[in-house]
Amino acid sequence: MIKTNLLISTLIYPNLIMILMTSQTLAFMPALSKPMTHQDITRVAVLQTTADVCRSRALQEGWNFVMPNPLTVKSVAESCYSSDSAKDFQSSLNKINHHNAWVDFWNFFTPSYHFDNEMFLAGRKLITDGVSVVKYSVKKQSYQTARAALGKVLHTLQDFYSHSNWIELGKTQPYSNLIKPDTLIENIADSKTCSQCSSSDCIGNILEMVITQNKLTSGYFGFFKPKGKCSHGGLADPSSWWQGGINKDSSSSSHGYLHSKAASVATAATKELLQDIRASVGDSEFLRLMGLTQSSVLCFVIDTTSSMSDDIAEIKRVTSSIIDSKTVTEAQPSEYILVPFNDPDFGPLTRTTDPIVFKKKLNALTANGGGDAPEMSLSGLQLALTGSPPEMEIFVFTDADAKDKELTSTVRALIERTKSQVTFMLTNGFSSRRRRSAVPVDGQQQVLNEVYKDLAEASGGQAIEVTKKTLSQATDIIAATSRSTLVIIFQAIRNPGKPENFPVFVDSSVKNLTIYITGSSPYYTITSPSGVSQSSTELIGSLGIIQKVGNFHKVQPSITEQTGVWLFSINSTQSYTIKVVGQSDIDFLFEFIELSQGPHPSYTVLNSRPAANNNITLLVTMVGVDSVRPTEVSLIQASNSNSVNGTLEEVSSGQYLVTFNGIPAGEFTVRVVGQLSSTRSLGNTFQRQTPTQFQTSTVTITTQPVGTAEPGKQLILPFTVATSGPGGHFTISVNNDQNFDTRYNPSITVNSGDSTNGTVTLTVPNTASSGTDVTLTIQAEATGGSDSNYAVLRIAVIAPVTDFTPPVCEAVSLNANCSGNCSLSTWYLTANVTDRSGSGVENVRVLYGNGNLSTTTVLNDRGVNVTMVIYSSSCCSSDLELVVVDAEGNVATCFTTSRAAKEITSGTTKRGSTNGVKCCLFLLVLYYLWSDISSHM
Ligand SMILES: *[C@@H]1O[C@H](CO)[C@@H](O)[C@H](O)[C@H]1NC(C)=O
Ligand SMILES: *[C@@H]1O[C@H](CO)[C@@H](O)[C@H](O)[C@H]1NC(C)=O
Ligand SMILES: *[C@@H]1O[C@H](CO)[C@@H](O)[C@H](O)[C@H]1NC(C)=O
Ligand SMILES: *[C@@H]1O[C@H](CO)[C@@H](O)[C@H](O)[C@H]1NC(C)=O
Ligand SMILES: *[C@@H]1O[C@H](CO)[C@@H](O)[C@H](O)[C@H]1NC(C)=O
Ligand SMILES: *[C@@H]1O[C@H](CO)[C@@H](O)[C@H](O)[C@H]1NC(C)=O
Ligand SMILES: [Ca+2]
Ligand SMILES: [Ca+2]
Ligand SMILES: [Ca+2]
Questions:
Q1: What is each CA distance from 102 to 89, 419, 557, 595, in whole angstroms?
Q2: Ligand 2: does its nearest atom lie under 6 Å from the Cβ of 637?
Q3: How confident is the model over 384-435, as pLDDT tens digits?
Q4: What residues contact residue 234 under an 8 Å CB cut-off, 6+ apart?
Q5: Atom of ligand 2 nearest to the CA of 571
Q6: Which fold has domain 296-483?
Q7: Contact 266, 258 (CB under 8 A)
Q8: Which class would CATH give 486-584?
């Protein structure tokens, strides 16, 4: 038995963390001749860290965990019991990588972003400020902002290992001070650091003295460089033209012989940063940040005015039936979002992972108020679009016209940027004949539900018109489409309608093929690959079942032979939509991007419509089986089936750059056709289509990169409007989802072929708290509305950080009576933790270990809050890593046994073992730690 009671100033064990990092880094060994890019480094680190988090969660929950090999997005998602979220995981990783690339696109010549020019303090500040944004944004569930900030931080962090002399100093571990704002960056070189080098590889150009004295330096980039300093190197860096440099960007760089070493330490550093974020936000939030638990989301925007009581009752019924259906646990939504709207009020948005909380929120909804007939539906929808994960389906329930139609183009912009589908459940209860007739309003011709139909079309959703009585017959679409693995195989919208035949490939991965058709009495015939055919007049036929309600038809084929080419023949002169969906793991993700013209290949994701009369570039990522490859990526004209093929270039595994030299006229969607495996056959052919209709514009809006906004301060957002179309006056409108005050000039003049600058002044109220994010849309519309474009900006609100110091573990006692049968004995650990005068201890977390943790906070006699921690665990389990987090997200690692135990006993400490010898080995480790702690005093 050991009983200790010690006063300890800090209990941080960098050496132990290091041991772990190296042992895990061994798994990273791609082809050495190929340069490791930022994207590769990030992917490896994210996959390893995520797998590590899932392993510790599995241990705590008593689940089985098998470390996947190799680590891929799909294999990690599967081992995390989240195979349905593989697409969201990929999408989150992509977002992080897009923002990593963004730094080279926008800040290529700013040395601090790349640790060039010995900008160590400024570079470190970019990292620690960015990490604060990540932590605060996660706390507020602003995951998209968090991913953006994380991507930027990782670029700078990773560049340190390529651009400084850390690797040349012989270091094999990350420089942890870069992510710790309370530490010093020491020993920065204060004089000459490099000699000229003549050979191409420049080995040994860093001065001997710099190496022996352990001085930190980095390469200078550009035309101006203090004499005797090192250069970055490469053709793009004039300072190195006559003397070489030290960067390790690729194996052909000046110090390319160290490229793979630098990449490997950069990977370890990326993991160290991810672990810091994980410790700060907790495991389940970390997994949500990675998109791993966001698989299926139920999102409702609900009219709560007095006319809606029937509808609200039906929504409650449907939601309960989805939540209570325990048949397929995987199909349970992982997240619920609710936005009520009324008139004049709307919101707030509720986002929860807890079905009970969601049901409570729904049950609390009552129908009242609203005044006149139209209601604030688009304001509610705007909140849902900015506050939900992208690429999901949003259901809007209303029986009234929109009172806030001025938001139509903002909502449309958000639909295009988020690629969310919006399906309207409209219960105005008119017959279809009366609905089609125009209702004159103030001399204008205004058709009921027109704005909803337009937005549904633009998003690839549906405008379902039913009566209050028949609403329940249409709502099973909600359960079907909230599945995360739902894919869109084909979609067409014809307005006005015309008879047309649509051939569609259905591949062998597709399950539960379903066809949705909307329109007033469309006549159609569906023919399966084996020639079985059924027309819309047969509700039960040889193919399957047709359900009709209002303008909405659902066809579910029940025949077994579904793989091959289907034919959908629609004969209607009224407008109609057809959508063919199914369940499948195979899908694609894409972004419109702009490639940088600069010296360094990079790209940025467009936050606006692509420019007309220009080439369009897409970055396409395939999701699903690894052998899936696209053979054709095309833009499909929305009004007919004309298409334009792009040129494909594989840029990394599963990622393709697709260039289009022309585009179809008007609105278009994106389609990918490909092969499921390397054997080319009809049954292997798949097709997928985006629901969203995109368009190009002769108007462009360019925004500058924005930093964060501070509560109580104004933020100036410069933008530039240019036009390749006709010049003249442009109407500027600005909207944001937080209702923050904005000032701007509502009209600017732009000449054809020219550009004009403007600014938006955003005032953030004092009351806005850190981590809030504001989505701001700037729109420019040509006179007469002939063309328009927008830019969507997401800005994080962060109050200045004042607490840079992690909490301290002031006292610890260990009480372990582990002898004999370990399952019969328990060990205890107690600690007192405080954040001194900082922001206060907010969380104590067990990162590894499955014992019990309890905390009590008391005010001690010096007026300081002290959190007393007691951890108790079975003697069979030696794992423990305890972290303490303050309110600003600073993390202290207070106690670690697991990794040390694992290392020192060479993996022989097995959980659940009843072997007394192993039990005692573990105690030896604890004892070893103890003496280590004592020696720190
Ligand atoms: C497919 O449909 C059947 C019947 O409608 C349903 O029971 C099953 O859960 C669905 N499977 C998937 C993967 O959605
Ligand atoms: C389409 O419908 C029209 C009118 O209902 C009918 O005259 C015509 O024969 C139909 N065409 C086909 C190909 O079914
Ligand atoms: C579009 O791409 C083609 C070939 O890829 C190139 O020749 C052409 O100059 C590009 N056009 C524009 C406007 O960039
Ligand atoms: C697009 O490519 C496919 C396959 O390569 C080809 O069959 C089709 O004709 C092309 N379409 C156009 C419009 O060029
Ligand atoms: C407009 O803004 C851009 C980018 O900030 C700047 O380069 C340009 O000089 C400005 N033009 C005018 C006319 O102020
Ligand atoms: C831990 O904190 C409590 C409350 O301030 C105090 O009573 C106790 O003495 C502290 N223990 C040690 C070992 O400092
Ligand atoms: Ca109403
Ligand atoms: Ca009203
Ligand atoms: Ca603190």
A1: 20, 21, 46, 10
A2: no
A3: 999 999 998 999 999 999 999 999 999 999 999 999 999 999 998 653 333 3
A4: 240, 245, 247, 249, 253, 254
A5: 1
A6: Rossmann fold (3.40.50)
A7: no
A8: mainly beta
